Amino acid sequence: MFEIFFPLFLVALYFLIKLASRRNQTTVFGAPWVPLEPHVVNQIMELAKIKPNDIFYDLGSGDGRLVIAAATQGARAYGIEIDPFRVWYSRLCIFLFGLSGRAKIIHKNIFNVDLSSADIVTIYLLQETNDKLFKKLTCELKPDTRVVSAAF
User: Which domains does the chain have, with CATH numbers?
Assistant: First the structure.
């Protein structure tokens, strides 16, 4: 019985989370969710120059596509996301891709995360949020940390 209902449960959960993740949370979370196109993900990965076991952080990770891309390239990848629906959706995607050992989504505000261990940080946020992040990044990051930012 379990063998039948558990996969059906996972499929139903996937579609519920996917549906819920389409909601625009601009007023609640400070930035709209705008998914990166695959070619932009590839460009960001090229600019990041990921090496095996790099520590990768994606601030405002949304559906986790950068976290998944970094983990598949050998990084220990962390996504920081405040929207609970996107947190659960991206965790499910990481599980389905078999990357649970290399990738993790942290349900937290990006301003409350210690980034001092990061080798790479990616951001795809509004300019206003980037401006607020600047001081945090300059204070916490190592001198050789690579920061890759994409613009709306």
Answer: 2-149 (3.40.50.150)
